[in-house]
């Protein structure tokens, strides 16, 4: 599988990311770059989501969804849409979010975005950074076992003394990339987050399998302990009845 990158559309960060992809992900084929030929992006087993938000409510302190971006495991953009506000925007947070009033004038209704995003992520591994924030503003849920949050992965947290690292810090320390030097770009952030997952997927998934195995074993031990306790109680009760008779 070759990755074809349209150099007119992607950032220099993503071109650098593509060259760092593990050989296993590229199936030992060389990365190709092309200015004219771009294959349609395809859904992969894992997808990564990132959202930009604007401020609503008193002093603009509450979050409201403004933009949703989803990329596949190859970093190709599957979805990137602005969302029509459902209430007055108090603070566009343009310096950080990159969102302007003009961006949202022709935004897609929230219920449409919810349906489209839900269709994409259904039955897939969903990657994100502090992903609970994205799901919260989308008013969507996703099975916990299918979520991979780069902010909470122990392998990454160990690099920051157990703290919850920012995506910017992770990109710098793990990938050697400088991102979010100005306004955020949800497509680029999603690509960086996906690359963090892809590069560490094997050990990440292995740690989850081991954890689930231990959890399953602990459950069986507890069940056996409860069954043993019930037998002892039953035996004790029978002995007491015989003595009474």
UniProtKB/TrEMBL annotation:
A GO molecular function held by the record: 3'-5' exonuclease activity
Subcellular localization(s) per the UniProt record: Nucleus
Compositional bias (Basic residues): 221-231
Transmembrane segments: none
Compositionally biased intervals (Basic and acidic residues): 208-220
GO cellular component: nucleus
Residues covered by the Exonuclease domain: 45-206
SMART domains: EXOIII (SM00479)
Region entry Disordered, spans: 208-245
GO biological processes: rRNA processing
Keywords: Exonuclease, Hydrolase, Nuclease, Nucleus
Family of this protein: Belongs to the REXO4 family.
Name of the molecule in the record: RNA exonuclease 4
Source organism (scientific name): Adineta ricciae (Rotifer)
């Amino acid at each position: 599988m070759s990755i074809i990158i349209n150099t007119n559309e992607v950032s220099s960060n993503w071109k650098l990311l593509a060259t760092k992809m593990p050989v296993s992900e590229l199936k030992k084929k060389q990365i190709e770059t092309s200015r004219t030929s771009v294959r349609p992006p395809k859904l992969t087993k894992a997808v990564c989501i990132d959202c930009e938000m604007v401020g609503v409510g008193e002093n603009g302190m509450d979050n409201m969804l403004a933009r949703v971006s989803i990329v596949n495991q190859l970093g190709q953009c599957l979805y990137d849409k602005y969302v029509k506000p459902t209430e007055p925007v108090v603070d566009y947070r343009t310096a950080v979010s990159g969102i302007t009033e003009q961006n949202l004038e022709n935004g897609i209704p929230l219920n449409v975005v919810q349906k489209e995003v839900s269709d994409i992520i259904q039955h897939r591994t969903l990657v994100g950074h502090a992903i609970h924030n994205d799901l919260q503003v989308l008013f969507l849920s996703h099975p916990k076992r299918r979520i991979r949050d780069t902010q909470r992965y122990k392998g990454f947290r160990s690099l920051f003394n157990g703290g919850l690292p920012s995506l910017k810090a992770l990109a710098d320390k793990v990938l050697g990339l400088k991102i979010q030097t100005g306004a955020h770009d949800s497509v680029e952030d999603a690509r960086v987050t996906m690359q963090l997952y892809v590069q560490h997927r094997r050990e990440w998934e292995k740690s989850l399998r081991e954890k689930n195995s231990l959890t399953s074993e602990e459950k069986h031990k507890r069940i056996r302990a409860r069954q043993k306790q019930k037998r002892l109680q039953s035996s004790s009760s029978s002995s007491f009845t015989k003595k009474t008779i």
